[in-house]
Give the backbone structure.
Amino acid sequence: MRISSLLAAVAWLTVSGASVQADCATSAQLGFARGLAAYDGGDYRTAFEEWRALAEAGDAEAQTALASLYVSGQGTPANPARAVHWYRRAAEQGEPIAQQNLGDLYGRGVGVGRDLVSAYVWLALAADQGRRWAERRRGEVAAQFSPEQHAEAEARLAARRRARDE
C-alpha cells in the first residue's frame, strides 16, 4: 500500500512538474506573442514592455527582439550600447539572429568599440546555424584581418565551439 502511494505521488509530481514547465513556456510564448502583436500594430512601447519583462527573465528570443528595438529606437530611445547588451545575452545562449546582429555591431563599431575579431567569432557562430548573411559578412570581416587577427579569431572561435558542444 505504501509503495503504491509513493509511486502515485511520484507520478503526480512528475506530471505536475511537467505541467508547471508547460505553463511557464506557454506564459513566455503568450508574452512574446503579445509583444509581437503590439509591434505589428505599431504599438512599439507595449512591445518593448512585454519583451523587456521576458528578456530580464532570460528569454533569448525576447532579448533579441528587445535589442532590435534599442537599435531602431522604436518604443524606447535608440541606445546601441543597450542593444549590444541584450544581443550578447541572447547570443551567449546560442540565439543565431542575436549572434549575427552582435557580430555586425562589433564589425561596424556601433554601440561597442569596433572589434573585428569579436565580429568574426559571433558571425561564424551564426553561420554555423545556417545564417547565410552572417557567413557572407564574416568573409568581409576576415578580408580586413592581419595574420595575427586571423589566428586570434580562429582560436577564440574554436574555444566557443568547444564550450557550445560540451
